[in-house]
Amino acid sequence: MTHKIGIIGLGYVGLPLAVEFAKKYEVVGFDINESRINMLNSGHDTTLEVSDEKLQSVLNQKGVGLTLTSNATNIESCNTYIVTVPTLVDKNNRPNLTPLVKSSQTVGKLLKKGDLVIYESTVYPGVTEDECVPVLVKESGLKFNKDFFCGYSPERINPGDKEHTVANILKVTSGSTPEIGKIVDQLYASIITAGTHLAPTIKVAEASKVIENAQRDINIAFVNELAIIFNKLDIDTHDVLSAAATKWNFLHYKPGLVGGHCIGVDPFYLAQKAQEVGYHSELILTGRRLNDSMGEYVATEVLKLMVKNDLTVKKAKVLMLGITFKENCPDIRNTKAIDVYKVLKSFNINVDVFDPWVEPEQVEKEFGIQVIEKPTTVYDVIVHVVAHEKFKTLDFSTITSNKSIIYDVKGTLDPKLVDKRL
Ligand SMILES: NC(=O)c1ccc[n+]([C@@H]2O[C@H](COP(=O)([O-])OP(=O)(O)OC[C@H]3O[C@@H](n4cnc5c(N)ncnc54)[C@H](O)[C@@H]3O)[C@@H](O)[C@H]2O)c1
Prior knowledge:
The chain is α/β, with parallel strands linked by helices. 37% of the residues lie in helices and 15% in strands.
């Protein structure tokens, strides 16, 4: 099969994948967000996952290369569709499959005999075959596993991580029949230098991805619980973890805020599916609850530290370092840093937010916060919320007095500088 690839959804996952495939295949990238397409066509990726140079090197070449469009009819000539749209939760943390259904409608309308549709979005087991395939069948009028086929291959990239990028992360693949599984696997193997793992079924591949994130969430919840206990005992959690990590089989997770669209969301997908089949998840949802409460916990710890140090809480000047959901990337989706901000503000504290990674307009639009360009004044309290590398070179002496306190959420600042760590 000669693949002409259409990628649907060009965000954190879709764009790097499209660029990687475009080095070897003819690829058309489609996104409903016209301004995103215009920006990418100008040669710049605002998520910073793909460098301008890399993007421009594959754009608008003849034959092999990447073409970008917000018009779905431009992907009609493709025979392999890869869907990388968001999988969100609603305000009650229930899976919202709308983008998957809508993109399946788009693809279904264009589907031809012999086509292959591969889903990459993180889902609970069963979404591809039980939710998406019926949409494809309805829209196309074609028969599944006779006229067209499906695959599922979850993405494992990690925003801001320049070491683990698409091609050098081993990729799980699967197909709707054993033969299609091999075709899907060969397709990915042609661009993934780290290799592939062909799972026996689509449901196995779907389940494997969602448990990777649930496992991480539960492990972080455990160390967050340890942090709460050790704070009460006045023992530094990071010191305890460093000591314990000298054992060969201790897993060195660190406490912190769990936000973003993966670890903080995907466990809800698994828990929802479990509930559907009559099992109420205990551990998975306990982990979620604990991690979701950490923003408020951090803010409370800061407030306690202020009182202990005779700092007046009302109208105090606090600097929050970082607002993104994790370090070294501009992604503010589902950031838990905002929970820290909201609690501090509710005590009438003046909070400045400094984050050299974000697009200020995006933070203003999302949270109504005007991030400062650079800290220039002396603060009563500095809360190091996100461990951006850039904060390591900040000159704290110019923005603190001998009364100021520094609280370090991620434990990455020099311990000598810091009054307390999570
Ligand atoms: N961000 C990550 O690091 C990461 C890692 C692994 C897996 N995932 C999973 O990959 C999937 C995509 O995540 P993301 O971070 O790339 O999301 P994103 O929000 O960055 O990008 C999704 C893109 O899809 C577009 N889109 C939405 N509906 C569409 C439709 N109907 N048709 C065409 N385009 C549409 C949006 O405009 C957006 O540009 C999710 O399921 C996520 O859980 C994400």
